[in-house]
Amino acid sequence: AKARGRNCYQFFNQEIQIEAERTAKIHFHLKKAIHQGELQLYYQPIVEPKSGKIVKAEALLRWRYNDEFIPPDEFIPIAEQSGLIVEIGAWVRKQAVITAIELQQKNITMPISINVSTLEFWSSELQHNFIQFFDDILQELDIDVFPYKLITLEITESLLMKQKNEVNELLSMLRKRGIRISIDDFGTGYSSLSYLVNFPVDQVKIDKSFIQQLETDKRHKALIEAIVSISKALDLNVIAEGVETEAQLAFINQQNIPFVQGYYFYRPMPKNEFISLLSDS
Ligand code: C2E
Ligand code: CA
Ligand code: CA
Ligand code: CA
């Protein structure tokens, strides 16, 4: 038994080592990814489930390194740990704003949601300059009116847990400009329903983990019902994420959830595909 225990330990050590090497490798290559044009922003349409009409979209980051797509769930945490997320986040916001403006110039009004990681908010430069950031793009792009109303920031509950007054103030300032605030992955973290009352938010996104288990586990249905009912009472928008099947859609419709995002309708797609999809419809 002793020998086996030792093998296990060695095996475990090896796993950690392999993982650490992969993390280091990703970090090393990610540093250069922006400048080498390896990052791309994809767009996933968000639809009204009953009509199937595209009403908004979420911008989702893609990194192609050689012939491999490294999933954001793998490289975003590494970007957060290393601080690279600040530069990456700025790039993402700028690309998303450019796309919103491009569409506007084609007379297509398409609000775009941008994921903002909590660490990005707290990086010392950004905390004070998040507003300034949008002013800077405005100048850089040489446009007269910034389409604040077309921008939604998707934040997670972890942002709402610390320095509540500062966060509240920042979110209020952004909202005064017309930017909308959405709580992402709602219900998966250390949720507190009081967040919905105490912070200036416009929208709640039901995480795909709930949607994907609703057919097999009644409790997930109950949870979704509860989120929908409180959101309605507080006059918040609701988006269901990760809808893949007819049965999931039927439940969404039965709940009168107004917005849906999922493979049932569309997968995330490159910008040019997204623009031509919108131009054709
Ligand atoms: P998220 O914000 O919860 O984004 C939704 C994820 O669900 C996306 O994964 C999307 O492709 C996926 N999805 C949408 N519909 C379906 C469906 O019907 N079935 C399934 N199985 N998946 C669906 P993705 O693009 O891999 O992104 C993963 C996570 O990485 C995001 O989760 C977000 O937390 C993070 N992320 C992505 N882009 C950015 C970014 O630009 N900045 C930051 N900070 N985080 C990002
Ligand atoms: Ca999101
Ligand atoms: Ca997320
Ligand atoms: Ca999610």
Automatic annotation (TrEMBL):
<feature type="domain" description="EAL">
    <location>
        <begin position="23"/>
        <end position="281"/>
    </location>
</feature>
<protein>
    <submittedName>
        <fullName>GGDEF domain-containing protein</fullName>
    </submittedName>
</protein>
